[in-house]
Write a structure and sequence with these properties.
With 387 residues, this protein is an alpha/beta fold. It has two domains: 255 residues, Dihydropteroate synthase-like (TIM Barrel); 101 residues, Sulfite Reductase Hemoprotein, domain 1, CATH 3.30.413. It is built from twelve helices and 15 strands. The strands form three sheets. The protein has an eight-stranded parallel beta barrel with strand order 3-4-5-6-7-8-9-10, surrounded by five helices. A five-stranded mixed sheet has the order 11-12-13-14-15. Strands 1-2 form a two-stranded antiparallel ribbon.
Length: 387
């Protein structure tokens, strides 16, 4: 049996979350929402897999127009990811059951408007239309003030950001919300959620390891976090974020439910010795922000063709969109973030250049081999500069 949770109960339409409600399993459509046909197909795939909540991203008026047609086409519980377009919440709230915002994106629009005002306005939209809210804190996109204030401890940055936004929402008298604190490293996900729950045990938690990557590694990384947190009574809803082809997106639901069954039955899987040693490939889960479906194939090719560096302690991040890609590749040794036609290659925070999907893999290998050579013979390196 899973231990009892201390969180308060909230609702997403008819679905209870928190307290002693069953732990909900959700996923996110891996389409551009404005592509109505494919988005409805993806929603159907996730519904068939048994998703409790399905998240879609809205970043434009075209996405909003699609949502107006998606809502009457499905009775699924829908969560909308506001991305950098929080002002669309007034139009979206009547169409969905839950609004998700990232504190790190609120400063992009109306930068002179205080964040507290924006959060209060979002809480009002949710309250007026009987929606739940999710405060989605992501390690790759902290608000600038937290990134600067906690430069040496980004777990502290995530936790403090989440705590502050809980206070801002509650100042409006709104309590129907959850918090997520995500990172691509499951160990940091564990620490962040533990620290947050120690201070706010009443707030329901959504669990996830962002950019967990391709199976089976992405499943293992996620299990590491979920086994530790759920066995401590932490976690009221969850998502397994996997980089998988369009038609296989239901795997996220199937894997999530299997994890819950295993943990409840005490079936814990040990982490292989040295799992975090050597080459680490992280990849985002092909969500609705992805602008080119070739992203998943690129991630698979990166994994397949980099085995020569398997013993090197190097992180390669493959990100599918322009929203989180630039920031979330900064902490990787090498990063690829994919636009609709070009893929930008980075080495740490430095941009190397942008190339078409068919050409970028060769450029990645040039940089990867250089890193391997520099580490083998440090005196030959040129401070990370490529030739």
């Amino acid at each position: 049996m899973l231990p009892p949770r201390r969180t308060r109960a909230i609702t997403v339409r008819h679905l209870p979350l928190g307290a002693q409600a069953p732990i909900a399993v959700q996923s996110m459509a891996a389409t551009q929402t404005a592509d109505l046909e494919r988005t409805l197909e993806q929603v159907a795939i996730l519904e068939a897999a048994g998703a409790d909540i399905i998240r879609l991203a809205v970043d434009s008026r075209a996405d909003l127009a699609a949502m107006e047609r998606i809502r009457p086409a499905t009775d699924a519980l829908l969560c909308v990811d506001l991305q950098e377009s929080y002002r669309l919440a007034a139009d979206l709230a009547p169409l969905v059951d839950k609004l998700r915002y990232n504190p790190g994106h609120l400063h992009h629009h109306e930068p002179t408007r205080p964040v507290a005002d924006k959060v209060a306005w979002l809480a009002d939209q949710a309250a007026n239309h009987n929606c739940a809210l999710r405060i989605g804190v992501n390690a790759g996109s902290f608000p600038p003030e937290y990134a600067q204030r906690f430069a040496d401890d980004h777990v502290a940055a995530a936790v403090q950001c989440a705590l502050d936004h809980c206070d801002l929402i509650e100042q409006s008298g709104f309590t129907n919300f959850v918090v997520s604190l995500k990172d691509s490293d499951p160990r940091l996900v564990i620490e962040a959620n533990q620290r947050f729950a120690a201070q706010r045990p009443d707030v329901p938690l959504h669990l996830g390891v962002t950019e967990a990557g391709l199976p089976p590694d992405g499943v293992i990384k996620t299990r590491i976090a979920f086994e530790q947190l759920l066995s401590q009574g932490l976690g009221d809803t969850l998502r397994v974020s996997l980089t998988v082809p369009f038609a296989e997106k239901g795997m996220e639901i199937e894997v999530g439910r299997q994890m819950l069954r295993d943990i409840a039955a005490g079936r814990f899987r040990s982490v292989p010795q040295g799992f975090f040693d050597g080459l680490n490939i992280i990849a985002c889960p092909s969500c609705s922000r992805v602008e080119n479906d070739s992203f998943v194939a690129l991630a698979e090719e990166v994994k397949r063709t980099t085995t020569y560096a398997a013993d090197e302690k190097i992180t390669i991040a493959v990100m599918g969109c322009r929203v989180n890609g630039p920031g979330e590749t900064d902490n990787a040794d090498l990063g690829l973030w994919c636009g609709p036609r070009l893929v930008t290659l980075k080495r740490g925070a430095r941009t190397i250049g942008s190339w078409p999907f068919a050409e970028v893999l060769e450029k990645l290998h040039t940089e990867l081999r250089q890193i391997v050579a520099e580490r083998a013979c440090p005196t030959t390196g040129q401070s990370g500069e490529s030739a």
